[in-house]
Specification:
alpha/beta, Rossmann fold, 7-stranded parallel beta sheet, 7 strands
Amino acid sequence: MIPNRFSGRTVLVTGGGSGLGRAIALAFAAEGASVVVAGRTRASLDETVALAEGADGTVVAQVADVARAADVDALVRTAVDRFGSLDVAVNNAGVFRGGQPVVDLSEEDWQTLLDTNVTGVLLALRAEVRQMRTQPDGGAVVNVSSNLGAHMQVPRTTAYAASKAAVSALTRGAALDHIADGVRINAVSPGASATAMSLLPGETEDERAVRMKEQSPLGRVSSTGEVAQAVLYLASDAAGSVIGTDLVIDGGTSL
């Protein structure tokens, strides 16, 4: 790995207050990037900023809701005004709702999934590409989808899977639309990872570990660092000809 391969570059990470988003933001900062982390809760974003102390890069926080176009537009302006460009964007913000068959899904839960997981990614892509295509070196976008959706189905997760399948489709379509603008767009599709979202209701981490030994060919969840490094690869110069890919990171669960 080339040290500080993102030195001098500006990175935006949505959903950066916890879980995968936090791990991704810290990984970019460790390699010299100037990172703007966004989320809806100031306290959790401030924790991410504090964890980045001592890194070669810089992390700053801004409260934003990706389902609001004005918030997303302001995020991009903040990155450019503070650091001079927007070189990489990671659209990680997402929610899980449901946990029941489709027939029992509430309209409220369905709308929440669409607002954050689908519309949020679309609004972010729109704002990010508009900025990146004005830059001489363009930029790179990585959307965080899921192995649920385009790659596999699990009972009682259909609505969430549908929202993430839309992210995979948005990624491929936008990649074709905007590679001529100098913007590379790809996705990662994690399976269960070492975050709270992969825990079943009432399940402990130890219980999850036992469950994953049976459910995953790898026998464990992915670490947040493993997912983060996949994101960094797709955003790096080493992936210069990687366009519209959807990289599944799930220990073979969806095979």
